[in-house]
Write a structure and sequence with these properties.
60% helix, 272 residues, mainly alpha, two-stranded antiparallel sheet, elongated, 2 strands, Arc Repressor Mutant, subunit A
Length: 272
Protein backbone atom coordinates (compact mmCIF):
# COMPACT_ATOMS: atom_id res chain seq x y z
CA UNK A 1 0.00 0.00 0.00
CA UNK A 2 2.89 2.34 0.66
CA UNK A 3 3.98 2.29 -2.94
CA UNK A 4 0.52 3.50 -3.94
CA UNK A 5 0.67 6.53 -1.72
CA UNK A 6 1.52 9.87 -3.38
CA UNK A 7 4.54 11.47 -1.86
CA UNK A 8 4.33 15.26 -1.92
CA UNK A 9 7.50 17.33 -2.03
CA UNK A 10 7.50 20.08 0.52
CA UNK A 11 9.28 23.22 -0.70
CA UNK A 12 11.00 25.31 1.90
CA UNK A 13 10.28 29.05 1.78
CA UNK A 14 12.96 31.19 0.05
CA UNK A 15 15.03 33.14 2.51
CA UNK A 16 15.83 36.81 1.79
CA UNK A 17 19.44 37.71 2.44
CA UNK A 18 19.79 41.06 4.12
CA UNK A 19 22.55 43.27 2.64
CA UNK A 20 23.91 45.60 5.30
CA UNK A 21 25.31 48.15 2.81
CA UNK A 22 23.64 50.55 0.36
CA UNK A 23 24.38 49.43 -3.19
CA UNK A 24 22.92 52.60 -4.69
CA UNK A 25 20.03 53.03 -7.13
CA UNK A 26 18.89 50.29 -9.45
CA UNK A 27 20.92 49.90 -12.61
CA UNK A 28 18.93 51.25 -15.52
CA UNK A 29 19.20 49.93 -19.03
CA UNK A 30 20.92 52.33 -21.39
CA UNK A 31 19.77 52.47 -24.98
CA UNK A 32 22.45 51.69 -27.52
CA UNK A 33 21.86 55.07 -29.16
CA UNK A 34 22.62 56.72 -25.81
CA UNK A 35 25.87 54.77 -25.66
CA UNK A 36 26.72 56.05 -29.14
CA UNK A 37 26.09 59.64 -28.02
CA UNK A 38 28.31 59.09 -24.96
CA UNK A 39 31.01 57.70 -27.26
CA UNK A 40 30.76 60.79 -29.47
CA UNK A 41 31.26 62.97 -26.41
CA UNK A 42 34.40 61.05 -25.53
CA UNK A 43 35.74 61.23 -29.09
CA UNK A 44 35.19 65.00 -29.18
CA UNK A 45 36.88 65.45 -25.80
CA UNK A 46 39.88 63.45 -27.05
CA UNK A 47 39.92 65.52 -30.28
CA UNK A 48 39.37 62.48 -32.48
CA UNK A 49 36.53 64.55 -33.93
CA UNK A 50 37.44 68.24 -34.17
CA UNK A 51 35.16 71.30 -34.50
CA UNK A 52 34.16 71.82 -38.12
CA UNK A 53 35.59 68.45 -39.15
CA UNK A 54 33.78 66.03 -41.40
CA UNK A 55 32.60 62.78 -39.82
CA UNK A 56 33.41 59.41 -41.40
CA UNK A 57 30.79 57.95 -43.79
CA UNK A 58 27.79 56.41 -42.05
CA UNK A 59 28.70 52.86 -43.07
CA UNK A 60 32.27 53.15 -41.78
CA UNK A 61 31.15 54.86 -38.58
CA UNK A 62 28.56 52.18 -37.83
CA UNK A 63 31.13 49.44 -38.40
CA UNK A 64 33.72 51.17 -36.20
CA UNK A 65 31.22 51.57 -33.37
CA UNK A 66 29.79 48.05 -33.88
CA UNK A 67 26.19 49.28 -34.12
CA UNK A 68 23.51 49.04 -36.77
CA UNK A 69 23.03 51.91 -39.18
CA UNK A 70 19.47 52.62 -37.92
CA UNK A 71 20.85 52.92 -34.37
CA UNK A 72 23.60 55.23 -35.60
CA UNK A 73 21.09 57.37 -37.50
CA UNK A 74 19.00 57.71 -34.34
CA UNK A 75 22.03 58.91 -32.39
CA UNK A 76 23.11 61.27 -35.18
CA UNK A 77 19.63 62.75 -35.34
CA UNK A 78 19.70 63.44 -31.59
CA UNK A 79 23.12 65.07 -31.92
CA UNK A 80 21.83 67.14 -34.83
CA UNK A 81 18.93 68.43 -32.75
CA UNK A 82 21.39 69.41 -30.02
CA UNK A 83 23.47 71.27 -32.58
CA UNK A 84 26.50 69.03 -32.12
CA UNK A 85 26.59 68.03 -35.78
CA UNK A 86 25.40 69.61 -39.01
CA UNK A 87 24.28 67.73 -42.11
CA UNK A 88 25.16 69.18 -45.50
CA UNK A 89 23.20 67.97 -48.48
CA UNK A 90 25.35 65.74 -50.63
CA UNK A 91 28.42 66.28 -48.47
CA UNK A 92 27.86 64.39 -45.24
CA UNK A 93 27.84 65.27 -41.54
CA UNK A 94 30.16 67.73 -39.83
CA UNK A 95 30.90 68.54 -36.21
CA UNK A 96 29.73 72.03 -35.21
CA UNK A 97 32.38 74.68 -35.76
CA UNK A 98 31.56 76.64 -32.61
CA UNK A 99 30.77 75.37 -29.14
CA UNK A 100 28.09 78.06 -28.96
CA UNK A 101 26.14 76.27 -31.71
CA UNK A 102 25.62 73.32 -29.38
CA UNK A 103 22.48 73.53 -27.26
CA UNK A 104 21.65 76.99 -28.67
CA UNK A 105 18.16 76.06 -29.83
CA UNK A 106 17.40 73.86 -26.78
CA UNK A 107 18.55 76.77 -24.59
CA UNK A 108 16.23 79.15 -26.41
CA UNK A 109 13.34 76.73 -25.87
CA UNK A 110 14.24 76.38 -22.18
CA UNK A 111 14.36 80.15 -21.70
CA UNK A 112 11.10 80.60 -23.59
CA UNK A 113 9.42 78.06 -21.29
CA UNK A 114 10.95 79.71 -18.23
CA UNK A 115 9.67 83.12 -19.22
CA UNK A 116 12.52 85.61 -19.25
CA UNK A 117 12.92 89.31 -19.90
CA UNK A 118 15.43 90.91 -22.22
CA UNK A 119 16.78 92.69 -19.16
CA UNK A 120 17.61 89.28 -17.68
CA UNK A 121 19.85 88.57 -20.64
CA UNK A 122 21.32 92.07 -20.48
CA UNK A 123 22.19 91.70 -16.79
CA UNK A 124 23.76 88.30 -17.41
CA UNK A 125 25.80 89.63 -20.29
CA UNK A 126 26.94 92.60 -18.19
CA UNK A 127 28.03 90.42 -15.29
CA UNK A 128 30.05 88.17 -17.58
CA UNK A 129 31.61 90.94 -19.66
CA UNK A 130 32.78 92.87 -16.60
CA UNK A 131 34.64 89.78 -15.41
CA UNK A 132 35.92 89.09 -18.90
CA UNK A 133 37.35 92.62 -19.14
CA UNK A 134 39.15 92.07 -15.84
CA UNK A 135 40.57 88.75 -17.02
CA UNK A 136 41.55 90.25 -20.37
CA UNK A 137 43.62 92.90 -18.57
CA UNK A 138 45.56 90.12 -16.85
CA UNK A 139 45.90 87.67 -19.73
CA UNK A 140 45.98 89.81 -22.87
CA UNK A 141 48.81 89.44 -25.33
CA UNK A 142 50.25 91.96 -27.74
CA UNK A 143 48.28 90.51 -30.63
CA UNK A 144 45.08 91.04 -28.62
CA UNK A 145 45.96 94.69 -28.07
CA UNK A 146 46.75 95.16 -31.76
CA UNK A 147 43.41 93.66 -32.80
CA UNK A 148 41.47 95.81 -30.32
CA UNK A 149 43.28 98.93 -31.51
CA UNK A 150 42.50 98.14 -35.15
CA UNK A 151 38.87 97.45 -34.31
CA UNK A 152 38.56 100.77 -32.48
CA UNK A 153 39.90 102.50 -35.58
CA UNK A 154 37.22 100.82 -37.69
CA UNK A 155 34.59 101.85 -35.14
CA UNK A 156 35.70 105.47 -35.44
CA UNK A 157 35.37 105.24 -39.22
CA UNK A 158 31.81 103.91 -38.75
CA UNK A 159 30.37 106.99 -37.02
CA UNK A 160 26.87 107.54 -38.38
CA UNK A 161 26.72 104.10 -40.01
CA UNK A 162 24.71 101.83 -37.65
CA UNK A 163 25.25 98.59 -39.57
CA UNK A 164 29.02 99.02 -39.86
CA UNK A 165 29.30 100.24 -36.26
CA UNK A 166 27.39 97.22 -34.99
CA UNK A 167 29.72 94.79 -36.81
CA UNK A 168 32.88 96.37 -35.43
CA UNK A 169 31.44 96.97 -31.94
CA UNK A 170 30.53 93.30 -31.64
CA UNK A 171 34.00 92.36 -32.86
CA UNK A 172 35.59 94.60 -30.21
CA UNK A 173 33.75 92.68 -27.50
CA UNK A 174 34.84 89.43 -29.16
CA UNK A 175 38.44 90.60 -28.90
CA UNK A 176 38.00 91.03 -25.14
CA UNK A 177 36.41 87.58 -25.01
CA UNK A 178 39.41 86.04 -26.74
CA UNK A 179 41.90 87.94 -24.58
CA UNK A 180 40.24 86.69 -21.37
CA UNK A 181 41.01 83.08 -22.37
CA UNK A 182 38.20 81.42 -20.46
CA UNK A 183 36.57 78.74 -22.61
CA UNK A 184 33.43 78.31 -20.49
CA UNK A 185 32.61 82.00 -20.20
CA UNK A 186 33.43 82.46 -23.87
CA UNK A 187 30.94 79.77 -24.90
CA UNK A 188 28.18 81.20 -22.70
CA UNK A 189 28.84 84.69 -24.05
CA UNK A 190 28.70 83.49 -27.64
CA UNK A 191 25.26 81.99 -27.01
CA UNK A 192 24.02 85.10 -25.25
CA UNK A 193 25.39 87.38 -27.95
CA UNK A 194 23.54 85.41 -30.63
CA UNK A 195 20.27 85.67 -28.67
CA UNK A 196 20.81 89.39 -28.11
CA UNK A 197 21.94 90.18 -31.64
CA UNK A 198 18.70 91.77 -32.86
CA UNK A 199 18.34 93.71 -29.60
CA UNK A 200 21.91 95.00 -29.98
CA UNK A 201 21.22 96.08 -33.54
CA UNK A 202 18.13 97.97 -32.42
CA UNK A 203 20.08 99.67 -29.63
CA UNK A 204 22.74 100.75 -32.11
CA UNK A 205 20.07 102.15 -34.43
CA UNK A 206 18.96 104.36 -31.52
CA UNK A 207 22.53 105.57 -30.98
CA UNK A 208 22.98 109.28 -31.68
CA UNK A 209 26.18 110.07 -29.76
CA UNK A 210 28.78 107.87 -31.42
CA UNK A 211 31.59 109.84 -29.82
CA UNK A 212 30.55 109.03 -26.25
CA UNK A 213 30.02 105.36 -27.05
CA UNK A 214 33.42 105.20 -28.75
CA UNK A 215 35.06 106.85 -25.72
CA UNK A 216 33.50 104.23 -23.42
CA UNK A 217 34.96 101.42 -25.53
CA UNK A 218 38.31 103.19 -25.72
CA UNK A 219 38.39 103.52 -21.93
CA UNK A 220 37.95 99.76 -21.55
CA UNK A 221 40.75 99.22 -24.07
CA UNK A 222 43.12 101.62 -22.28
CA UNK A 223 42.69 99.82 -18.95
CA UNK A 224 43.17 96.41 -20.57
CA UNK A 225 46.31 97.67 -22.31
CA UNK A 226 47.59 99.00 -18.95
CA UNK A 227 46.79 95.59 -17.43
CA UNK A 228 44.72 97.20 -14.69
CA UNK A 229 42.20 94.46 -13.95
CA UNK A 230 39.98 96.39 -11.54
CA UNK A 231 39.89 99.54 -13.67
CA UNK A 232 39.04 97.51 -16.78
CA UNK A 233 36.07 95.95 -14.99
CA UNK A 234 34.85 99.34 -13.76
CA UNK A 235 35.21 100.81 -17.26
CA UNK A 236 33.04 97.99 -18.60
CA UNK A 237 30.43 98.72 -15.91
CA UNK A 238 30.27 102.34 -17.06
CA UNK A 239 29.97 101.20 -20.66
CA UNK A 240 26.96 99.04 -19.79
CA UNK A 241 25.36 101.85 -17.81
CA UNK A 242 25.57 103.97 -20.95
CA UNK A 243 23.95 101.21 -23.00
CA UNK A 244 21.29 100.79 -20.34
CA UNK A 245 20.04 104.27 -21.04
CA UNK A 246 19.32 103.32 -24.65
CA UNK A 247 17.43 100.12 -23.84
CA UNK A 248 13.79 100.21 -25.01
CA UNK A 249 11.30 99.82 -22.19
CA UNK A 250 9.30 97.18 -24.02
CA UNK A 251 10.17 93.62 -24.94
CA UNK A 252 10.00 91.36 -21.91
CA UNK A 253 8.61 87.85 -21.79
CA UNK A 254 8.86 87.04 -18.13
CA UNK A 255 7.03 87.86 -14.94
CA UNK A 256 5.41 91.21 -14.19
CA UNK A 257 8.28 91.89 -11.82
CA UNK A 258 10.71 91.46 -14.69
CA UNK A 259 8.60 93.62 -16.95
CA UNK A 260 8.58 96.49 -14.48
CA UNK A 261 12.23 96.22 -13.56
CA UNK A 262 14.88 98.52 -15.02
CA UNK A 263 18.45 97.34 -15.12
CA UNK A 264 20.41 99.32 -12.52
CA UNK A 265 23.70 97.44 -12.52
CA UNK A 266 24.77 98.16 -8.93
CA UNK A 267 28.43 97.45 -8.23
CA UNK A 268 27.71 94.48 -6.00
CA UNK A 269 25.83 92.71 -8.83
CA UNK A 270 28.90 92.65 -11.06
CA UNK A 271 31.30 91.46 -8.41
CA UNK A 272 33.30 94.66 -7.96
Amino acid sequence: MFDKMQVQKVEEPTKTIAIPVDLGPQIARVAISDEVIARFKDLIARRVFVPGGKLPPERDLAAALAVSRPTLRQALRALQILGVIRSRQGSGSYLAESAADILREPLEFALAMKGIAETDLFETRCTLEVKLASLAAIRRKEEDIAEMRNTLARMRESFGNPDSWCVHEIHFHSCILNAARNAVMSTVMEMLSFMLLESRRETVRLLTDYGSSYAAHEKVFIEIEKQDSEAAGLAMVEHFRMMEGRLPRRGTHGSSQSRNRRNKLPREEVGL
